Amino acid sequence: MTIVHKFGGTSVGSAERFAAVADIISQHPDIGAGAVVVVSAMSRTTNQLLSGAWAAADGREEACRRITAELLQRHLSVVNELFEGDPEREELVEWVQSRLRELERLYSSIGVLGELTARGRDHVMAFGEQLSVKILAAALRQRGADAQPLLATELIVTDDHFESAVPMMPQTRARLQAHVLPLLAQGVVPVITGFIAATETGVTTTLGRGGSDYTAAIVGAGLDADEVWIWSDVNGILTADPNLVPGARTLRELSYIEAAELAYYGADVLHPKTIRPVIENGIPLRIKNSLDPTDAGTLIVETPKPNRTRLPAIISTTGLSLIAIGSLDDAWSLPGVARALQALSEAGIDVLMFSQSFSEHSLNLIVRRQEQSRCLKVLQAAFGEELQRGRYSLDARERAATVSVVGVPGWNERGTVSHAFAALGIQGTRVIAVAQAATETSVSFCIPEDQVAETVCFLHRDLGLDEGLDCRLHSLPVPAVEHVR
Ligand code: ASP
Ligand code: MG
Which residue puts its alpha carbon closest to atom 7 of ligand 1? Predict the structure, then answer.
């Protein structure tokens, strides 16, 4: 049985976590009999590598040195802690040091050039996974498994869209079959770098941030795996963020379509692209918890069992900004809206939600907070003249968040959407903007960020989702409401 197991950055965030992951893999019944491992860089590593590269390009040498020193120290302390008294320790220490010297050389050439291309960024970001595969493979050998680290630059062939490269499946499949299958036949456990890949000519690319899930799905598809398991740090896909709602429940079985919808609304245990290669190949996908490995987690399949429990889920995203552009009089018009959205799209800024009000003469845009200042600059450039003449106004209004209720058809006879609207009214949440899916089973609200925790908790309880409650019973009387659009 071939199972691809993917572990993310937090699962290998410390020596202790590396050891826990190595225990999970080495105790798995399929170990040495078809288990394939895909691993991300240690948490924070990819961000640090990238900040180091920007610092190098800006000539901030001190910041650059601090980052390499911290990366070196963190990886070395993991190696020293895990391999104390182990014959492999010295070789691993030397190897980590040599990779970091190579990174330093790379940073200094970026410094000389004074510019950082997307190609350069991918080259830099690839260092994190190269370090973690080597450490995890050694930890598995320590536990008696015949593990071997593999670089996905040799296995996954992509186009040259740096930072979000697209895999070429026929070539990738051929390489995976040629390199990985013989290892599996010999009882070897391949430990493959997540996130990174290469073009046909061998130039390093990456699959997009958070792309290790995607790697696992590509590897699963290319090897005709029986299952792909994504190991996270929660018990699968839940009815709400367990940090906000301790009583959140696991959605035990989902269809591919339902999982894709949750991923689309921002359920961050799953990368939206991940789903595609597994759907195309009909491979079951499991989301498991590396902190609680015996929990069954979530199973995602083409056709779930007809008698499974079906529940809606609440997905919340914080760290957003509300930006408003419009006119003081009634000059604001539809072409203005089109112009704003076009300019932002050309600048590659994701608008997560927008609402347009002609009575207010403005367009409200929801963007990620880290893109706020770039968004304002792009709009300033696009509407420079109107802004200067005082015809239009532009400002970042407030910290915002989105809360989506992703329903399942037929779950509640009153409709998930109208139920959610009523609940928000009772809770007193101020709704800034609304977007509703045409299916009428899902709805997204933009609300002030400081109301997220109470709103999500209230919605969870009110929709009857708290553990132990019957899902069709409401905890509070909710007045009947017509569908609000
Ligand atoms: N290390 C990569 C990132 O931080 C890939 C991943 O974690 O999935 O984006
Ligand atoms: Mg992830």
Answer: 210
Q: Running DSSP on this structure, what letter comes out for residue 126?
A: T
Q: Is the CB of 214 under 6 A from ligand 1?
A: no
Domain boundaries, the chain: 3-232
Task: Indicate if ligand 1 lies below 6 Å from the C-beta of 195.
Answer: yes
- Contact in structure between 284 and 1 (CB atoms under 8 Å): no
Q: pTM here?
A: 0.85
Beta carbons within 8 Å of 224's beta carbon, 6+ residues apart: 2, 281
Q: Residue 100 has what DSSP assignment? A: H
The per-residue pLDDT for 480 is 40
Q: Counting ligands in written order, which one lies closest to the CA of residue 209?
A: 1
Q: CATH number of 3-232: 2.60.34.10, 3.30.70.660, 3.40.50.10320, 3.40.1160.10?
A: 3.40.1160.10
8 pocket-lining for ligand 1 (C-beta < 6 Å) = yes
Mutate to test the pocket of ligand 1, among 38, 127, 129, 209 (most ligand atoms within 8 A of CB): 209
Cβ–ligand 1 contact at 194 (below 6 Å): yes
Under DSSP, the state recorded for 483 is P
Taking only the tens place, the pLDDT of each residue in 102-130 is: 999 999 999 999 999 999 999 999 999 99
